[in-house]
């Protein structure tokens, strides 16, 4: 008798538990990733208001398609004031990740590292609350005509106080790399 | 008058003596608790030199007894002795029921229940409740690593996955309270969700011979069993408090068991653990703290012919992941490997921040059994498990509080088993198992699902049999069939779908096209057959076990569906829908001997695995975050062999020596190269002193030598890495293959028992890693980022009441 009671109790338990797990039969909801950066746009404006664009787009985020880069030729011996924007174009409307970076400026830093054969220097024009650079606003000064590459890094949670980091050298920055893109630059 | 009486008495005695000295007394000695028979019990007639040991059926028989009054004393090494007065005037059958000592109750009962009786030839090893208590503040994986042939695959210090003879994760089944754990065991950084304090006994079965629990145990089965209740009125309890210097925290665990003579019992167990950051010899391992709260409740009834058991447990853990192991891309990985120091070290703290894991595992089971006299036993068990795993990453835009992964895995499992036991030398078991599993990844994470939504049905049937051919020879055999259907709903990136060439093979599973993503419905069936044949042969003080078996495992969701970036090792992991089941063929043999004050136990094995599923690097993908090595699941043929040795020597009453040695050799036979993550040679030696006159002080010194793994696949690759000083890219070797150097650790422990009025108190002091040795372990996924933990002082108070 007791056994029968127990068996029926078990059967009830079985039905109760299976019942509560049947709630997600519907097709799962699509996820358009929020944090992915698909696009980096750099706008360089010289003193005369001429604009040069460097842009890179990775249409599938972390997927297998490699990113595609485009860079305008830069003029020699010119001072450009530069801005950078990070977008997530997988979302509609397009999400501007730059806003998040600016809001958490103490946790982010953009590094611009020219290759040794590219005659250019970069200086930061912005600061976070602690007086360390962020790199959303910067000045890019070109020298004599040359070819080379410019690597742009967005590092999340860098150690900004580490040696050289506030001068734009990522060697000791630590943190994790959210963006690492390379532009082929032609200064003429 | 007095003389008359004496005369009369002697006459009666003499009469009895001369006339009735051909009586016999026979019967069985039975374990009062579970009605099993007791072998080697001593049945003695007081004031005579007549005594006899019960045979393996618990039977004894005295011949040639005279009629009269006797006092019979029955004793057994694990039981309380029993004395009984009898008057014998005819041949009699008399059974004795013995009660166990409380101390040994657990082990004895469990041995009776488990393989020692049923599946004698299984190559297995057990850890005692004392070892479990010693590891009260650690994990299941840590405790069973003390056995030869068992090691662990770690992520840091607190995520410890057991490895049996070189295999782990989905290839090792964990049976907790007679329920197969379904806790997303596929992930190498998913530790078993089990509180070691809830187990009274843990058995490791090396290989797939335990078909009753599953056919896919290509590595082995770990069986954790709770405390059994005695059939008597009693209240038992145990409390263990542990404090640790490294991590500056501790653990407290309490067990209570109330049992009644009627067979009814209640039990409750709880434990709480809190640790801060652990420390390597040279630095703090930032964000490695852990907090754990576990509770388990049970009640049941044990009658001779029927009973039931209801059990509920909740395991809740929050584990910090070493901050320095969270990296961005392959450049960060190269920097981490080359710098040999964690990139992020902070002051000690108890705080657990992102990255971290937060897991709650709940288990509810109901079990009923009915015994049929001279026929067998029927067992029906229903179990429900709910595994909720949240993994938090360092995220932008105040999203760190939102898990990056949030999976809820629910498993229902119904098992019906019938054990046929009509004959003394033959028993057989048949069983039917139904499983339904539902995985729900919460889309609110805002991160693409690592494991998709899926429903899985499993139907399994098994048959096992044990046959005792003679006093020294046992055979067992078994076969099991598993049918698995997995019905998933997975989103693929269009680019990944095409890169995998799925548009050709799987065009028909597309449900909806969202442009850049496709919703697909992979719906696959797997048929798996496993079988086993074993033998045990005993001669004198030798025992020889041999097992030959085949086991088949269907691919797990991770092997089929993975397709994402892993931040912890900066790689992209890709599953494959084409993956089929893997099948192992294993032969293993074990030789044991107990002679004089020596004992040894050697087991060797050879394991061929067809279509072994492994994760292997295959090129590099460029993304906007930089470059990432791609790791793909693929199938190959593998071969593992190895040897596990344990030798013990009792020098004298006070001193004993013990040595454990394990070697495993794994090879990818299709490509003629070593298998990854094979445990290096491990050699542990210990000496223990028991000093009786100093309050039974127990001293224990152990040495662990782990060799460098010299057999490993070369998965190194070169990739252009930015030299941030010059701004130029340079080809750099990413050395992810080289195992760390050999290391040697010394540990010490002192233990002393005290008797206080109501309880037994045991105080233990241990020093682990005495010399604060700096080392890294090949089987730690965080070996690229930081050293292992340094010296640790552990103080433990154990109260038995």
Task: Please give the structural blueprint.
The complex is a heterodimer of chains A (188) and B (801).
Chain A: H1 2-20, E1 39-45, E2 51-57, E3 68-71, E4 79-88, E5 95-96, H2 97-103, E6 108-114, E7 120-124, E8 137-142, E9 146-156, E10 176-187
Antiparallel strand pairs in A: 1-2, 1-4, 2-3, 4-5, 4-8, 6-9, 7-8, 9-10
Chain B: H1 2-19, E1 23-31, E2 42-45, E3 51-53, E4 59-65, E5 68-75, E6 82-88, E7 92-93, E8 96-98, H2 102-113, H3 115-118, E9 124-127, H4 129-134, H5 140-144, E10 150-155, E11 159-164, E12 172-176, E13 179-180, E14 201-206, E15 220-225, E16 234-244, E17 249-259, E18 264-275, E19 278-279, E20 284-285, E21 290-302, E22 306-320, H6 330-339, E23 356-372, E24 376-392, E25 405-423, E26 426-441, E27 453-470, E28 473-493, H7 494-499, H8 502-505, E29 510-513, E30 517-520, E31 523-539, E32 542-553, H9 557-561, E33 563-566, E34 571-574, E35 582-595, E36 598-623, E37 626-650, E38 655-668, E39 673-674, E40 682-691, E41 697-706, E42 717-723, E43 728-734, E44 743-756, E45 759-768, E46 792-800
How would you describe the shape of chain B? globular
- Gap between N and C termini of chain B: 57 Å
Compute the separation of the termini of chain A in Å.
95 Å
Largest interface: A-B, 68 and 69 residues
Unreliable stretches covering 5 or more consecutive residues of chain A: 16-24
- Output the radius of gyration of chain A: 25 Å
Per DSSP, what share of the residues of chain B sits in E-state strands of 2 or more residues? over 45%
The quaternary structure here is heterodimer
Strand content of chain A: 35-45%
Please bin the fraction of helical residues of chain B.
under 10%
Largest sheet of chain A: 7 strands, antiparallel
β-strand number of chain A: 10
Number of helices of chain B: 9
Category from helices, strands and their pairing of chain B: mainly beta
SSE class of chain A: mainly beta
What order do the SSEs of chain A take from the amino end to the carboxyl end, as H and E? HEEEEEHEEEEE
